[in-house]
C-alpha cells in the first residue's frame, strides 16, 4: 500500500487500530518472543481453506438431476439446495469483511469455518429437502473466508512474497471448483453422495486446527465494546434484504418468468432497498461498506470488471460440461460420463493455479492494471477458441471415424478451457491487488469482501443469461428439449464479449497504480 494511503487519518468508528498495527507492508507489531509467521505454511493453510470452502459449490453438481428423487420433492424446491448457498454467501461475505476489520481476521476465519463444518454434517445426515437447504445455507456462511485470507496475507507476508500468495489464494475458489468436480463425480459414481459431505466436514475440522496453529494473531482490533459500537447492524440487514431480492430475481427469473409478479416485485424491492441502504450508509460514521471508498475510480472500475470476470468464469462451467455429456447421436454431443467430463475440465483449475506467480510478476513490474487487462484478453481467447471448436464439430460424419474426431475435440476443448482458466487466474490475482492498493488499511477486509460480492453477482447473472440463451435455443430430441449447437456457440460468444469488456474497463483504470503494485 502506498505511503500516502497508510498515513491518512483513521476512518470514524475504526479507532485507528489497524494503522497503529501496520506501519509498513507486512510488518506487524508482535509481542516479544512471538515467532514470526512462516510464509509457506500460512499460504498453504489459507489456500487449502479456500479450496475446501469452494468445494461446496461443486459438491452437488453430480447429483443435481437426482435431487428431486433423493428428497421426494419437485425440481423447484430442490433448486434451493443450489441457490441458498449463493444467497447466504453473497450476504455474509461483506459482513465477514467488516467484522474482520473490527475483531481481527484470524478470529473471524475461525468463526466462519464452524458453520461450514456443521453444515456439511447436516447435509450428510439430511433426510428431507428442508434440512438439506439449512445445511447448504450454513456452508454458504464460509464464503467470505477467501477474501479474508487475501487481506490477512497482505498483512503478514513479506513484500516480495505477497503478490504470488494473494494470486494463489484468490484463485482457490476456482481451483477448488474445477478440481472438486471430478472428485465429486467419482465419489458419487462409486459410493454414496453423503460421503462427499462427511469428507468436507472432516476437511473443515482439519482446516480449523491448521488455522488455529499456523495463522498468526497479528491483527488485534479494538475492544469488543468498541467493535460493537462500530458495527453497522442496520446496514447489515438492509444489504441482506436488498441482495436477497436482487439475486432471487436474477437466479429465479427464468423459472418464475421474467415478467411475472414475483420477479418484477423482487427487482423493485431490490432497487428501493439498496437505494435506501446506500443513503443510510453514506450518513453512517462507521458504515458496513464505505461507499465513498468504493466510488474511487480504481475501486469502482475494478469492481465492474470483477462482475464480468465472474460472469465469464461461470459461463464456461455452464456450457462445456453440458456439451461433453450430451449423447454423440446429436451430432455435437461428446458422450462423456460425469467422471470423464470432470477430468477433461480439471485443467481449467490447474491453469488458474499455474499462472499465480506469473501474474504476481506482471503486477510487480507493470502494475495490476496491466495484469487485469491482459487477463480479460486471455479469457476472451479461451472463449473464442472454444466457440470455434464447437462450431466445427456439428459437421462431423457419424461412424467409426467419429471416435477420433471426438477425442480431438475433447483435447481442443481442454486447451480452450485451460486458456480461459489462466486468464481467470491472472484476474483473480490482480483484482485484490488493485483494491488493497487503493483503500485505507482499516477497510482492506471489507473492501476485498465487497469485491468478492461483485464476482458473485457476476456468476449469478451468468447463470441467468446463459440459462435464458440455452433455454431459448432448443430442439426436441426423444421428447426432451435440449440446447442446440447454435445455442452453445452464442453463449460462448457472450462470454467472450464479457471478457473483452472487462479488459476494456481494466484499461481505463486510472494510472498511478505502479507504486501501489510494488507492495503486492
Plain-language structure description:
The protein has 520 residues and is mostly helical. It has 3 domains: 36-229, Growth Hormone, Chain: A; 233-283; 291-520, MFS general substrate transporter like domains (Growth Hormone, Chain: A, Up-down Bundle), CATH 1.20.1250. Helix content is 75%, strand content 2%. The chain contains 23 helices and 4 strands. It has helices at residues 3-6, 17-21, 39-58, 67-70, 75-78, 80-103, 105-125, 129-140, 145-156, 159-190, 194-214, 224-230, 233-256, 261-282, 291-294, 297-325, 338-354, 356-366, 368-393, 401-436, 444-472, 485-507, 513-517, and strands at residues 22-24, 27-28, 474-477, 480-483. A two-stranded antiparallel ribbon has the order 1-2. A hairpin with a 2-residue loop joins β1 and β2. α10 (159-190) packs antiparallel against α17. The termini are close together. 56% of the residues are buried.
SSE diagram, text form:
Blueprint: H1 3-6, H2 17-21, E1 22-24, E2 27-28, H3 39-58, H4 67-70, H5 75-78, H6 80-103, H7 105-125, H8 129-140, H9 145-156, H10 159-190, H11 194-214, H12 224-230, H13 233-256, H14 261-282, H15 291-294, H16 297-325, H17 338-354, H18 356-366, H19 368-393, H20 401-436, H21 444-472, E3 474-477, E4 480-483, H22 485-507, H23 513-517
Antiparallel strand pairs: 1-2, 3-4
